[in-house]
Specification:
heterodimer, A: mainly alpha, Cytochrome C Oxidase, Chain A, 14 helices, B: mainly alpha, Four Helix Bundle (Hemerythrin (Met), subunit A), 0% strand, flat
Chain lengths: 589, 220
C-alpha cells in the first residue's frame, strides 16, 4: 500500500465539532484550546514563583527587616521558586503551550494526532500543579530541599517540609512526567505523521524543529527524574538505602545504610542538563522565526540552524556532570565533561552568528516581538559567555555556589527564555485572540523588563567574584565581603521588585486587548508560515476550513528578489508567485 | 551511568541517521524543487505505531537508567547479592509463552483468521495474569523468608525492578482488555487487528526487558 499522509485521509482522525460550552472550552480536545489552558495555568504558577522570588530578594536585600521570612520558609521559597519556574512554568509553557498551539498549525494539520490523549495531558498536568500547590498548605509546609532535592538533606530530619512537602513534591513531579509523556508522544507523532502535503521536514519552520527536538530530549531525559523520584520515595517511605547513607539526624536514626547521594546527583543531572535545552531549544526556534519575520529576511543558514539544534540536543546528554564538579570526581572525568561542555559552545555560537547575520542588512521592524527577540540575543550571549567560565573545572570550583552561578543560569535559562515567551506571545497574540494589543504599552513592557533584569543580574556577577555565597539566608559577619556588597544586594532587590511590578503592564495589555483591542488582520506581520494563512482568525476547530493547505516552499521566502510582496507564504504554488517578470529556473523542468 | 548513556546514544544515533537521510542534500530554499510532489513518506507507518515506538524509547530510557543506578549502587561496599526465588524461572517461561501466543494470535489476525483471535487473546491474558501472580508469589516468598526490601540494596532493587516491570505489564493489560472487549463485542476486525499487532510488539518488548532484568539480577 502506498503511503497516504494522514492529512489526506478523510477524517481518519475524528474531529467532532464541539457543541456545548463545556466540550468547547473545558474538556476540549482542540489543540488550540488545550494550548491556551496550558499557557494560562503555566503563567498562573509562574506568577506565584515570581512573588516567591520577590520575597527571597526582600530578605537578601534587607535582612532582619521582614518578620514573615525566617530561615525555614526562606528555603521553602527558594525551592519552590526554582522548581516552579523550571518545570511547571517554562517546560509546560514552551511544550504544552506553544508546542500545542504551533505544531499542528505550522505543519498544516487539523489537530494533534491523538486529541483525547492531548486533553488528558493537560488535565494530568493540572493535577500535578494542584498537588504542588497543596504542598504549601500541609503541616510543615512545602519542601525546602532546594530545587535539586539533593539527598540526604531532602529527606533528613531538620529540612523544612520533610514530612509532607517532599512527598508531595516527588508525587507532583511523577504526575507531571506522566502528563509530559502523553503530550510528548503527541508532538512527536504529529510532526512525523500529520504534516500536510509538501511539508517536508526541511521545510518546517525552526519553531517546530526546536519544539520537536526538545520534546525528544524531554521524552528521553524525564525518565531519569522519574527514576530518582521513585527511588527517593522508596528511601523516604520504605526506608530503603538507594541514596541515603547511614545517618542520624536530629537524634533520629531512620535506619539507612550505605546509600549514595552521588548516585542521585548523577540521575538528577542526567535529567537536569537536558532540561536546560528542553527549555532553550524551543526558544531558539521561536527566536529564529521572530527575527526572520520582523527583519523581512530569510533565516541565515537554515540547514545549519536545524543541525545545530540537533547537535545541541545530542550533546546535552553527555555534559551532565559539569553540575557536579564540586561533588568530587576523577580528574579525567572532569576533563571529559569540561570538554564536552565547551564543545556545546560551537553549535550554540553558530546559532548566535546566524541570528546576527539574519539581522544584517535586514529590513528591521522594531515591533514588540522583535524587541524581545533581539533582547534575547543579548541576554543569551551574555549568559552563554559566563557559561564558558563555569564549564572549566578549575574556574568553576571557586565560583561554584556563589552569585556568579545564580547570575549565569538566570541570564541563560531564566531571562532569555522568558523574553522569548513574551516575544512569542506578542507575536502570535493576533492569531490566538484575533485582536491587536497596545504597541506602546508592549514597548514599555520590553524596555523595563530588559533593563530591569540586566540591573538585577549584571551586579550579581560581580558579587559572585567577591565570593558572596548563594543559598544563604543571611550573610552574617563575613570578613571577605566588603560592606558595600550589602548595598549592591539592596540595589538588586530594588531592581527585582521593579521588574516584578512592571509585569503588570503585560497583564494590563492583555486585558485591554481582550476587552477593546482592534480587530487583528489575519496576517499582521506579513509572515510566510502556515499558521498565518488560516481561513479564520482565530482559527476555528479543524483549523483549515474545507481543504487542507499544501506546502510549496520553505518557511523563509522573505524579500525574494523580483516579486511584488516582500514575502511569499508557504502555501503559494511556484506558478502563482505573481512575479513581475521572472520565474525560478528549476521549476520549469 | 554507562548503561544509560550507551542505550541513549544508540537511540539518538538511530534518530540521527534517520534525520540525515531526510535532510541531507536538500535545498529547502529552492521553491518547488524536484521533491515537490512526493509528500515525504518516512515510515510508511501508522500514527499509533509511531507513538508506540516513541513510547518504547521512553520506557527503554527508563529501564536503562534504573540499571545504571543498579550498576553504580552495586559497587558500594554494603551490597550483598540476593538469592532469587526459584519461582522466577517458572514466571519467565510463562511470560515467554504469553509472547509466543500473542505472536500466534497476531499472525492469525493479520491473515484474517478471525476464529483464532478470541482464544488467542484469552490465552495470552491468562498467561500474563499468571506471570503477574507468579511475581507476587515471589515477593511473598521473599518477605516470608525475611528478605525484606530494606535488608539490602540488592533486595530494594529487586522489588523496584519487578514492581515497575509489573506496572508496565498492567498498562499493557489495560490495552489488551480493551482489545478483548471489542473482539467479543463483535467490532470490526480491522480495528482489533491493529490493537493486537501493537500489543504484540509491546509484549515482546516487555519480555525482552524482563530477560535483561532477570539475567542481570541472576548474574549479580
Amino acid at each position: 500500500m502506498g503511503y497516504v499522509a494522514i492529512a489526506d485521509r478523510d477524517h481518519e482522525v475524528e474531529h467532532h465539532d464541539p457543541q456545548t460550552f463545556i466540550s468547547k472550552y473545558v474538556w476540549s480536545q482542540d489543540h488550540k484550546v488545550i494550548a491556551i489552558q496550558y499557557g494560562c495555568t503555566a503563567i498562573f504558577v509562574g506568577v506565584i514563583a515570581l512573588v516567591l522570588s520577590a520575597m527571597m530578594r526582600l530578605q537578601l536585600g534587607f535582612p532582619d527587616t521582614f518578620s514573615f521570612i525566617n530561615p525555614e520558609n526562606y528555603y521553602q521559597i527558594v525551592t519552590m521558586h526554582g522548581m516552579i519556574m523550571v518545570i511547571y512554568l517554562l517546560t509546560a509553557l514552551f511544550l504544552g503551550g506553544f508546542g500545542n498551539y504551533l505544531i499542528p498549525l505550522m505543519v498544516g494539520s487539523r489537530d494533534m494526532v491523538f486529541p483525547y490523549l492531548n486533553m488528558l495531558s493537560y488535565w494530568v498536568y493540572l493535577v500535578s500543579v494542584i498537588i504542588l500547590l497543596i504542598s504549601f498548605f500541609v503541616p510543615g509546609g512545602s519542601t525546602g530541599a532546594g530545587w535539586t532535592l539533593y539527598p540526604p538533606q531532602a529527606i533528613a530530619q531538620g529540612t523544612p517540609g520533610v514530612d509532607w512537602g517532599i512527598l508531595l513534591m516527588l508525587a507532583s513531579l511523577g504526575v507531571f512526567i506522566v502528563a509530559f509523556t502523553m503530550g510528548g508522544l503527541n508532538y512527536v507523532t504529529t510532526v512525523l505523521q500529520a504534516r500536510c502535503r509538501g511539508m517536508t521536514l526541511m521545510r518546517m519552520p525552526l519553531s517546530v524543529w526546536g519544539i520537536f527536538i526538545a520534546t525528544i530530549l524531554g521524552l528521553l531525559a524525564f525518565p531519569a527524574l522519574l527514576v530518582s523520584a521513585i527511588m527517593m520515595l522508596f528511601d523516604k517511605t520504605l526506608a530503603t538505602s538507594f541514596f541515603m547513607p547511614a545517618i542520624s539526624s536530629m537524634g533520629v536514626d531512620p535506619g539507612h545504610t550505605g546509600g549514595s547521594p552521588i548516585l542521585f546527583q548523577h540521575l538528577f543531572w542526567f535529567f537536569g542538563h537536558p532540561e536546560v535545552y528542553i527549555v532553550a531549544l524551543p526558544a531558539f526556534g521561536i527566536v529564529s522565526d521572530l527575527l526572520s519575520t520582523h527583519a523581512r529576511k530569510n533565516i541565515f543558514g537554515y540547514r545549519m540552524m536545524v543541525w545545530a539544534i540537533i547537535a545541541i540536543g545530542g550533546l546535552s546528554f553527555i555534559v551532565w556532570a559539569h553540575h557536579m564538579y564540586v561533588s568530587g570526581m576523577n580528574p579525567y572525568f572532569g576533563f571529559f565533561f569540561a570538554t564536552t561542555t565547551l564543545i556545546i559552545a560551537v553549535p550554540t555560537a553558530l546559532k548566535v552568528y546566524n541570528w546576527v547575520l539574519t539581522l544584517w542588512e535586514g529590513n528591521i521592524h522594531l515591533r514588540v516581538p522583535m524587541l524581545f527577540a533581539i533582547g534575547f540575543v543579548f541576554t543569551f550571549i551574555h549568559g552563554g559567555l559566563t557559561g564558558l567560565f563555569l564549564g572549566n573545572v578549575t574556574i568553576d570550583l571557586p565560583l561554584s555556589d556563589t552569585y556568579f552561578v545564580v547570575a549565569h543560569f538566570h541570564m541563560v535559562m531564566g531571562v532569555s527564555p522568558v523574553l522569548v515567551v513574551f516575544g512569542a506571545i506578542y507575536h502570535w497574540w493576533p492569531k490566538i485572540t484575533g485582536r491587536m494589543y497596545n504597541e506602546t504599552l508592549g514597548k514599555w513592557h520590553f524596555w523595563m523588563t530588559f533593563l530591569g533584569t540586566y540591573s538585577i543580574y549584571l551586579p550579581m556577577h560581580y558579587l559572585g567574584f567577591q565570593g558572596v555565597p548563594r543559598r544563604y539566608f543571611a550573610m552574617g559577619n563575613t570578613d571577605f565581603m566588603p560592606a558595600s556588597a550589602q548595598d549592591l544586594n539592596a540595589f538588586i532587590t530594588m531592581a527585582a521588585l521593579f521588574v516584578a511590578v512592571t509585569q503588570v503592564l503585560f497583564f494590563l495589555n492583555v486585558i485591554i486587548s481582550l476587552r477593546s483591542g482592534k480587530k487583528a488582520d489575519p496576517n499582521p506581520w506579513d509572515a510566510t508560515t502556515l499558521e498565518w494563512q488560516t481561513p479564520d482568525t482565530p482559527p476555528k476547530h479543524g483549523n483549515w476550513g474545507h481543504d487542507l493547505p499544501e506546502c510549496h516552499r520553505w518557511a523563509y521566502d522573505y524579500s525574494v528578489p523580483g516579486y511584488k510582496d516582500d514575502f511569499i507564504p508557504q502555501n503559494v504554488p511556484a506558478s502563482d508567485e505573481a512575479p513581475a517578470d521572472r520565474q525560478h529556473g528549476v521549476e520549469e523542468h | 551511568m554507562e548503561i544509560g548513556l550507551i542505550v541513549l546514544a544508540t537511540m539518538l544515533a538511530a534518530l540521527l541517521g534517520w534525520l540525515l537521510r531526510q535532510s541531507f542534500n536538500t535545498q529547502p530554499w529552492v521553491a518547488g524543487a524536484a521533491a515537490e510532489a512526493d509528500h515525504q513518506a518516512p515510515f510508511n507507518a501508522r500514527p499509533k505505531l509511531v507513538a508506540l515506538t516513541t513510547f518504547l524509547a521512553v520506557a527503554t530510557s527508563f529501564f536503562a537508567l534504573i540499571l545504571s543506578a543498579y550498576s553504580l549502587r552495586m559497587e558500594l561496599g554494603d551490597w550483598v547479592p540476593m538469592t532469587e526465588p526459584s519461582i522466577l524461572w517458572t514466571n519467565t517461561v510463562v511470560l515467554i509463552l504469553a509472547s509466543v501466543v500473542f505472536q500466534w494470535t497476531r499472525n492469525h489476525a493479520v491473515n484474517g483468521n478471525v476464529a483464532r483471535i478470541k482464544p488467542g487473546l484469552l490465552l495470552t491474558g491468562a498467561l500474563t495474569t499468571a506471570f503477574l501472580a507468579g511475581q507476587w508469589l515471589a515477593w511473598q516468598e521473599l518477605n516470608a523468608s525475611g528478605q525484606y526490601i530494606t535488608v539490602n540494596p540488592s533486595n530494594a532493587f529487586f522489588f523496584l525492578l519487578t514492581g515497575v516491570h509489573g506496572l508496565h505489564i498492567l498498562g499493557g493489560m489495560y490495552v489488551w482488555g480493551r482489545a478483548t472487549v471489542r473482539t467479543f463485542g463483535g467490532q470490526e476486525m480491522d480495528a482489533v487487528k491493529h490493537s493486537v499487532e501493537l500489543c504484540t510488539i509491546y509484549w515482546h518488548f516487555l519480555l525482552l526487558v524482563w530477560l535483561v532484568l532477570f539475567g542481570l539480577m541472576l548474574s549479580t
